[in-house]
Amino acid sequence: MSKKNFMIGKKIRNEFCIIVILLLEIYPFVSVAQMSVTSNSLMHYSNCIGEAKDRNRIFFLDRGTMFRCRDDIAASYFNYLGRMRVQERRVRVNEGVFIYRDISGIGKCWNQIEDQSMSPVSLYGCDIYVQM
Questions:
Q1: DSSP states of 10-24 as a string?
Q2: I want to staple 97 with a disulfide (CB 3.0 to 4.6 A). Which of 3, 78, 86, 114 is the partner?
Q3: 13-28 pLDDT, tens per residue?
Q4: Contact (Cβ atoms closer than 8 angstroms) between residue 123 and residue 116
């Protein structure tokens, strides 16, 4: 086997291992939540988890861990959920007005459209919960 073929084979094995690890991370939620396991949903899930780790937005809760991604990564995930026709709900809380789209059984993405003073804003975020 040539060195080039060996390196290609090694790269394919590494990519396969990454996909298997991602699937094992979300496996507990698939049967309960019927989460979509398409390449796009895995990409958005992975990007959000990765950004949360990179930006130190990991919150350890009593029964699990919450990963929070923001800005472009979250906007992309939020828009993907919209394209998948995930039902959204509009909620007014003390911090402002939010539009929520659920990530089947594992979290939610949100778009804040008004702040506390009822001024228009556009802030995005996603929260992914991993149970221990």
A1: HHHHHHHHHHHHHHH
A2: 114
A3: 545 444 444 444 544 4
A4: no
**pTM assigned to the model:** 0.69
pLDDT number for residue 2? 53
Report the DSSP pairing between strands 120-131 and 64-70. Answer: antiparallel
Residues in Cβ contact with 58 at an 8 Å cutoff, skipping those fewer than 6 apart:
52, 65, 66, 67, 68
Number of domains the chain is built from: 1
Q: How far apart are CA 47 and CA 42, in angstroms?
A: 8
Q: Rounded to an integer, what distance in angstroms lies between the CA atom of residue 110 and that of residue 76?
A: 11
Angle, helices 71-83 vs 39-54, to 10°: value is 160
Collect contacts of 83-89 with beta carbons under 8 A, ≥24 apart.
Answer: 84/36, 84/41
The pLDDT tens digits for 70-83 are: 999 999 999 999 99
In sequence order, the β-bridge partners of residue 70 are 125
Range of the domain at 7: 3-131
| Cα gap 33→31, rounded to integer Å | 6
